């Protein structure tokens, strides 16, 4: 018998060639209040200054919900020239959000090629979480946005060949939390709880260099208690690959960001303080490298595959409403279905009313029935 086997061990190489040929669609969302370093984090993650460090540009003079001009970046092995192509601004399908006056959305498309492996990455930055005086329902536009991506994918499944489907679903959401001592804002808790039902949630404490060691410990413990009490699900698929863990194994991660500066010695990320300058990569409690490992190096496919769980839940909900809202049903068929369900509901309510009336009529005779039952039992004992 051949000691080398039949070739099953070559399967990883086959998958590698297939993935290299097709590429991967990978979409992340960064959410949080203004000024927490979301743009800087994305630039650090890419190793290049991809996003501009400027306020979101307005669209038609509005600053409610905006999508900037989509930009496509091509990074060749992170060492070649970076070409930039501007596309027309996307203005359709946003009527639900334009009047909210709460959030700002900015989407950037990035194409990354590294060692012949291609990733079509979309970064959606959501700003101004909790910046308003009234933050009631501030999370609704985010959930609608994610659900819109699910609907788009669902529509493609019914109309296109699977190999031609473009995956625009959100695979991971990095939620930035402001370091407010030892407590978490209520708007952050409710927003995270909503997002955790739609995609993989990874919470981070931004600007954690403003916290002392004691404050970090208390904040971490309080945050974990809130996650458990509020039943907020977070992504923990990285635990199987975790080797060099910090003191805080599970999220939230503590993050310190700084702009990329290019020197003769490579990229340097320095943060300026009144007392001096420090390289953020040397800060012991900065979890940026762990977060980068989760998002790109070790768990990218885990995030994509686990998105199927959230999508299946959405699709099951769509199937449940398909009977009444299905595109194949005519207007008359929908009308008949509604009439049938209304009639069934009315008959069910009528049965409940009759059952209650019967119970009310039986109450006066219950005492007599019990007395007769006791007499029958005594007669039976006497005969025995």
TrEMBL record:
PROSITE patterns: G_SEPTIN (PS51719). InterPro entries: G_SEPTIN_dom, P-loop_NTPase, Septin. Residues 22-321 form the Septin-type G domain. Keywords: GTP-binding, Nucleotide-binding. Signal peptide: none annotated. GO terms for cellular component: cell cortex; septin cytoskeleton. GO terms for molecular function: GTP binding. The keyword Lipid metabolism does not apply. The keyword Glycosyltransferase does not apply. Pfam families: Septin. Belongs to the TRAFAC class TrmE-Era-EngA-EngB-Septin-like GTPase superfamily. Septin GTPase family. This is Septin. It comes from Hamiltosporidium magnivora.
